[in-house]
User: What shape does this take?
Amino acid sequence: MLMVGAKLSATDDFCSIRNKAFTAGETIGYTVYYSVIGLYVNAGAAVFTNTLETMNGTPVYHVVGDGKSNPSYDWIFNVRDKYESFFDTATLQPLKFLRNISEGGFKQIDNVTFNKQTNTAITTTGVYKVPSCIQDVLSSIYYARNIDYNSYKAEDKIPFDMFLDNKVYNLYLRYLGKEVVKTKYGTFNAIKFKPLLVKGTIFKGGEDMVVWVTDDPNHIPIRIESPIIIGSVKVDMMKFTNLRYPLSSLISR
Assistant: This one.
């Protein structure tokens, strides 16, 4: 898939990205704020953990993302989501992906195994051909943390391929440059981009989401803003442990 302005394609340099941004043992916690009339309220929380494990003899990062709405807001939109990805520590390519979500009455369970020898994804409904360099929903976040954003200019598209719901999606991040952003945690020097989203039960899809990550070697997401099906959300990083590098992008608290 050709993307105007892209500086790499999902079929070449994409495979060569290696991990320099995070380490096993890292935990990052977020608060989710929700708004329908411009006033944001604390509506939920999410936490991402990363442990080192072995899968079929291959060292993998086992990343778990847990998200849930606060009990007092469950009547508006109940969320109980759990995502898991097991991806190769050397290549950042996923070997297994698990999803168990409950969003406003919609429930779905997925179990995907990636066969790198045959470039296939095996699910409960069949075997699907995938590109040699593929990501899942969760591994793509950690892949994005290892992009060298200094080699791009504003409006460049950084493409990647993702397997979701038995389909391969040709997606990209639109790099928007650098700026100072003030979050609930503090004020940061940040890198800003928009990911192209797949439409789901909460998010509308398209380029409406904006993400800020720390402008330091960790590249941890510190703020996410996006409209959703009803209203909008703002997600701020509020706690962390075991970052690989000092949080040098933090200007003040």
User: Anything to note?
Assistant: Residues 1-12 have pLDDT under 50 and may be disordered. The CA atoms of residues 183 and 236 lie 6 Å apart. The first strand starts at residue 27 and ends at 35.
